[in-house]
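Recap from last week: sequence in, structure out.
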Amino acid sequence: MPSIGPKKLLIAAWIVTFLIVAVLLVTPVGEKLISAGREETVLFALINSAGAELSTIHVTGWVKVDGSSPGDREPAELAGKVAGQMGLHLPVLKTENWQNAYARGAKVEGALPDGSPVSILGQAMEYPKGEKVSHVMVNLTAAEYKKTGFYKKQIISALRQCGPDLHVGVTLSGRINREMDDGELAACAEEMMRSAGATVRERTAKDNLISLTGYSTRMPGNMRYAGREINLNVALRRSPAEHVTYVYVASPVIMTEY
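Predicted structure tokens:
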């Protein structure tokens, strides 16, 4: 039997590699694998597709605290613990405490070593039947959309110290220097979801706002809402006072005010 030379083996390896990549490109699983890690690129492209200029980038996290002792549920302790995990400059932190009839909280504000502003809120709620639930929320303002993946990992690592029930999302906002009418808001939102390959699961239209939530195989990750998977949220809001339109895109959902 004739032997196969190194050159033929190399050619065969390239052919196999090409076939594997080709299969990945045309299958849902492959699309998800290839898109993983470029979530921020898809969101940025959606902002641009609406004709908006990028304004803000937020990476936001939330966790339900799984405390084993009463001290683990105190808002100030929780906020300080996450701040330390994220490497905030502790000597220059700004702190704020609040309380009402049903809840109390502590907010810590600071910056990462690279200068990115971070706000951390610890909150403890007491329900009428005596049940106590604590949460921690993190909101990071990023200067570059390309670094959101790094910031997500950092927030996830910090929040996991408080409990496994957590969610982290990325929200980009932009601005269009004209006021769209209601028909344009709806058409633009629908086109953004279509261009992302998303199936719309929920539509909300109220006053000067429209919000669409859905699922796209091009986006990594997901969360369940009303029993269905979602990982993309698009919203547009027109401002009659400013005569502009604000555009928001997020994965899995918008976790900031809009």
